[in-house]
Each structure stands twice: as structure tokens, then as C-alpha cells.
Amino acid sequence: QVQLVESGGGLVQAGGSLRLSCAVSGSIFSINGMGWYRQAPGKQRELVATITRGGGTNYADSVKGRFTISRDNAKNTVYLQMNSLKPEDTAVYYCNADIKSWALTPFKEYWGPGTQVTVSS
Fold first, then answer.
1. CA Rg, the chain, in Å?
2. Any idea what DSSP says for residue 107?
3. Which of 18, 21, 65, 95 is buried deepest, with most CB atoms within 10 A?
4. CA–CA separation, 6 vs 55, rounded Å?
5. Tens digit of pLDDT per residue, the chain (121 long)?
6. What is the distance between the alpha carbons of residues 23 and 6, in angstroms, rounded to a whole number?
7. Pairing state between β 67-72 and 10-13
8. Rounded to whole angstroms, how far apart are CA atoms 89 and 23?
9. Residues 6 or more apart from 121 whose CB is under 8 A from it?
10. Sign of CA dihedral 82, 84, 87, 88
């Protein structure tokens, strides 16, 4: 069994910062790519940022220069530092990871339950 648990969401004023964390626990043999996605009310879930096991990153254009994704492979944790937050960043943020639970099993995609980020104007 694998679990992803996000933390660090909350209410912040425009221009402020938040740091999200996502810890992976359970049966973990290897974690490949990890990432953050978000879903605003009435909208589809969208990619925010991804990071490979080696540290290669990819960002949505809307967050480039404001958000930074990082990971600690020893702690099986991925982070999202969000600066200069805007009201349009308001959404539920979901953690995502590709995880191999055992040596002979394939990688499988897992999602966290999500954490709410609300940016007030």
C-alpha cells in the first residue's frame, strides 16, 4: 500500500508565499517522476510542475519564475515553493508520483488527496 499526503496549504494574501510538501509512505522500491497539479472550481486539473528523479524540472507557463519544485529522495518527499501568489492560483493542489512498490512490479501512478490553497486579493 502506498500513500501520498500533502501538507502546507492554506489562506494567504496576494503576493504572499506558501510551501507545499508531499510525503510518500508505504511499499516503496523506487520513485520515478513526481509532480504537482491543481484544480480550480469548474476547471480541469492542470499540471503545475514536475521533477524527475535526477532533478530535471518542468513548469506550467503560468507559474514559471514564481514556483519552484524540489524533492528529497532520501525522505521520499516533493516540495512546491510558491511565491508571489495570485488569486488565480487558488485551487486544490494534488501531489503525483510514479512509484514502483516491488522490484518486479511496474511503475504505477499515485495521487494524494489534495490540499486547498486560497489566495485572497
1. 14
2. P
3. 95
4. 20
5. 899 999 999 999 999 999 999 999 999 999 999 999 999 999 999 999 999 999 999 999 999 999 999 999 999 999 999 999 999 999 999 999 999 999 899 999 999 999 999 999 9
6. 7
7. unpaired
8. 22
9. 14, 87
10. negative
In angstroms, the CA 33 to CA 56 distance is 9
Residue 48 contacts residue 37 (beta carbons within 8 Å): yes
Give CA–CA dist 88/54, Å, rounded.
Answer: 31
Task: Give the amino acid at 102.
Answer: W
Grid cell at residue 108: 504505477
* Amino acid sitting at position 52: T
